[in-house]
Design brief:
The complex is a heterodimer of chains A (178) and B (82). Chain A contains 3 helices and 11 strands; from the N terminus they run ββββββαββββαβα. Chain A is of the alpha+beta class. Chain A is globular, with a radius of gyration of 16 Å. Chain A starts with a strand and ends with a helix. Chain B has 82 residues and is of the alpha+beta class. Chain B has a domain at 7-37. A 3-stranded antiparallel sheet of chain B has the order 1-2-3, with no helix packed on it. The longest helix of chain B has 14 residues, at 45-58. The radius of gyration of chain B is 25 Å and the shape is elongated. The termini of chain B are far apart. Classes of the chains: A alpha+beta (178), B alpha+beta (82).
Chain lengths: 178, 82
């Protein structure tokens, strides 16, 4: 299967790579199915690309770069959305907003995206903790994460990225901690 | 919008499964108790709206090259690419 995305061009995927949001993302209730898309030109960030809408994609990142002690306790409604059983493997991500001026990028710590890897389901939670900001400045944390990422690995970052975007086999990739 | 007057301790039933109770009135604040099925998602509206707006902003995010993120490209040798 393939999507002709507005951002990443042609993205091929298989059924197994589709993540189902029972309730959609907040404000996007009709879009239920997404694939994770990544590119070596932009490590650490994954993109939740809608399967149903070519121009809708959310950049997501793990929250630990911004809060080491980040916790997202599942509420009852979240558990139902995720079809969550006790032994299911969950992955937590937070949504980035990246404006043209990158130094003003923010991360939404209040409404994380939880992926139930075992069931291929996901939900955007809204946490009760008022200290978690919807627009947390993220540039510094991101730069630090990127610097240590680039130091620990010898990676090649291609200049052009138009054709480098691929759908993530999230069951495999996420099980090894990306 | 349906508007009802209630006293402290009184409730409103919505369908069979949702019950809203006026718990306390203090100055300009009202404390409300809500009983609903556990799959019901209940949030303060301004938070919900703010997250909707932020999600919309997130979908406008720039998806360009790393260099635009202020990180220099690194060559395969691992040397600094500047």
């Amino acid at each position: 299967m393939k999507i002709e995305t507005t951002r990443f061009g042609h993205v091929e995927y298989v059924e197994d790579q589709v993540i189902h949001f029972t309730d959609g993302m907040v404000g996007f209730p009709r879009l239920k199915n997404y694939v994770l898309v990544e590119s070596p030109s932009m490590p650490l960030i994954l993109w939740l690309q809608s399967v149903e809408s070519a121009d809708i994609a959310f950049p997501i990142i793990e929250p630990w770069f911004f809060r080491r002690d980040y916790k997202a306790p599942l509420g009852d409604a979240d558990k139902i959305s995720l079809a969550h059983d006790e032994n299911d493997r969950l992955k937590i991500f937070t949504v980035l907003t990246i404006p043209d001026d990158m130094t003003r990028m923010t991360v939404n710590l209040r409404a994380p995206v939880v992926i139930n890897v075992s069931k291929s389901t996901a939900a955007q939670m809204i946490l009760q903790d008022k200290s978690l900001e919807i627009r947390t400045p993220a540039h510094e944390g991101f730069n630090k994460a990127m610097s240590s990422f680039l130091q620990t690995r010898t990676v090649s970052v291609p200049e052009a990225s138009t054709d480098a975007w691929v759908a993530v086999d999230f069951k495999g990739a996420l099980s090894t901690g990306l | 919008m349906l508007v009802l007057t209630r006293k402290i301790g009184e409730s409103i039933a919505i369908d069979d499964h949702i019950k809203i109770t006026i718990v306390q009135i203090k100055g300009k604040q009202v404390r409300i108790g809500i009983e609903a099925p556990k799959e019901t998602k209940i949030h303060r509206e301004e938070i919900y709206r703010a997250i909707q707006d932020e999600n919309k902003a997130a979908t406008q995010s720039f998806a360009g090259n790393l260099t635009r993120l202020g990180v220099p490209p690194v060559k395969k040798t691992g040397t600094d690419g500047v």
